[in-house]
Each structure stands twice: as structure tokens, then as C-alpha cells.
Write a structure and sequence with these properties.
Elements lengths: L2 E8 L6 H14 L5 E5 L14 E7 L2 H9 L1 H6 L1 H4 L3 E8 L7 H12 L4
InterPro entries: Dimeric_a/b-barrel, DUF1330
Protein name: DUF1330 domain-containing protein
Organism: Streptomyces thermolilacinus SPC6
Length: 118
């Protein structure tokens, strides 16, 4: 099942040279773990609810294990400070849903679990 690294980054108006170096090199750290960008910055976006002044990043991996191993890898950990020294943000790793996922079945299971008869 796919997994995702999701970043909600708060870049400065002008990106520091170290951040640009990070951007130039980050794909090389993703490749051994099957990671690829789905969203990277997305200058065009339409905020429908709330506020979103940050820069979104979404990277897909074959599994949560791949995502964890990428983030913990020596190559990525060596590169990471080039971004974190100059850009705040929130990052998480999260499982996706399996093929054929049905949100109605999820709702039904939650209803059943919350039923007083359970």
C-alpha cells in the first residue's frame, strides 16, 4: 500500500542558497526508496477552507517502511539541515489507503463501534 511524506513548509520570500542545494539533491535521496514527488510547492492552488500560506509537498513511496527508511537514511539526514536551518515546517509520514477503499464501509464500522449495543 502506498505511503506518503507530507510537508507543510514555510519558506522565506527568497530561498537561501542551501535550500536550493537541498532541492537540487533531494531526489537522489528518494530514488533508492522508490520515492517521487506528487506535489512540490504548487505555486497555483485554490484554498477552499481555512488558510494555507505554506508550501505543500507530497512525496509517494511504495510503503510506509520505504518512507521511514528514506527519512532515516544517512544521505537524507546529511542533506536535511540545508533545509531546516532556513525553513520551518511540519512533516509527517502516513499510510495511504488500499486499492478499492470504500469510505462508506469505514463510516459503517465506526457507527457499529459507537453503537450502545456494541
Amino acid at each position: 500500500m502506498p505511503a506518503y511524506a507530507i510537508g507543510n513548509l514555510r519558506p522565506a520570500q527568497t530561498l537561501h542558497d542551501e535550500v536550493l542545494t537541498y532541492i537540487e539533491r533531494v531526489q537522489g535521496t528518494l530514488d533508492p526508496f522508490g520515492g517521487r514527488f506528487l506535489v512540490h510547492g504548487a505555486p497555483e492552488r485554490e484554498v477552499l477552507e481555512g488558510e494555507w500560506p505554506q508550501s505543500p509537498v507530497i512525496i509517494v513511496f511504495p510503503s510506509l517502511d520505504h518512507a521511514r527508511r528514506w527519512y532515516a537514511s544517512e544521505d537524507y539526514q546529511a542533506l536535511l539541515p540545508l533545509r531546516t536551518r532556513h525553513m520551518e515546517g511540519d512533516v509527517l509520514l502516513i499510510d495511504g489507503v488500499p486499492d478499492g477503499y470504500d469510505p462508506a464501509k469505514t463510516a459503517a464500522a465506526i457507527r457499529a463501534a459507537q453503537s450502545p449495543e456494541s
